[in-house]
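User: Sequence in, structure out. Go.
Assistant: Echoing your sequence, followed by the structure tokens.
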Amino acid sequence: MKLPSRILLVEDDPGAAQALAALLGQMGASEVSIKPDLHAAVTWAREQLPSLVFVGLSQVDCLPGSHADVRRCFTVPVVFSTSRGRTALTLGLSPAEYVAEPYREREVAIVVAAATAQARGQQRIADLERRLRREEGLADSGRTAARAGVDFGKLLTHFGELLQPVRAAAGESQLEAFSTLDLLLDRGHRLCRQLRGEPELPEDFPRRSRVTGAPFAPPTFHGAVLIVEDEESMRDLAGCVVKQMNLPVMMARSGEEAIERFQADPGKVGLLLLDLSLPKMSGLDVLAYVRAVRPAVPVVMVTGYGEEVLPPDVRGTLRGLLQKPFSPDALRALLQRVVAGDASPALVTS
């Protein structure tokens, strides 16, 4: 085994320190530094950054678990050394955590390898925990923003409704003021769509006054239809219908593949056609992940069962439920309704 290049020995017994240092040199260590005091060694290690530390048990208080406090003093793997195996057992050390006199190359190599592997494993766990906390924070931020977009959008709509009778009674001299209100309300609704994760309306979209109550026409559909279906025949049928509608299409054969494609570019997906019964990861699992990242993405669930198999809170968030076996015309009609901007859920049974 090739040892780390820089090693620190913390040992107040000169004879034991020299014996271990000589063995480590024979095993390939290019630099072995010896410090007789633990506190001085910790300060030195922070500045010189060794790759591995050996600590004599004479530096450790003779209390069970105190070796863990010593490990926390260093940011690199720590191996303990002792002249008495009984002391190591008293402290709760396992044979893979210490070397005892007389020092042997094979034992030192095994213990160093175990300490290095343990340190790497702990570092990987710490990295994964940080990544999970970061992803959970992003998901929480996305859900908070989406809720704010929904609430603020409702407030703007209510405000526009309150202004309708005032606008109807206003004279021509006040039209400019209402035009400014139209502009501000429109900007507010555009911000709400961004918070909800919905696609932006194109610049040439015919905008109408929110103050007068005249509704917008259905928004132009943006993005691709992501078809998540493990049955090849049903997947090909759905893909053919989507292509005939001149819509971009993406395919996934499993829940895992769907999440992978969604993660690559969440904004690229404009509609999710999702099979409920998928192997390993179910359609509900995929839906939960998608909702955490983009709560407002339209979803049509495909199932061989009725709508009663879906939880009520899930059923209310869907743009449609398509029952197998379905015809191309049934799928086309449902997709046309969703693409046209109809937000009301629908159940298609054939």
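User: And one key feature?
Assistant: Confidence is low (pLDDT under 50) at residues 202-219.
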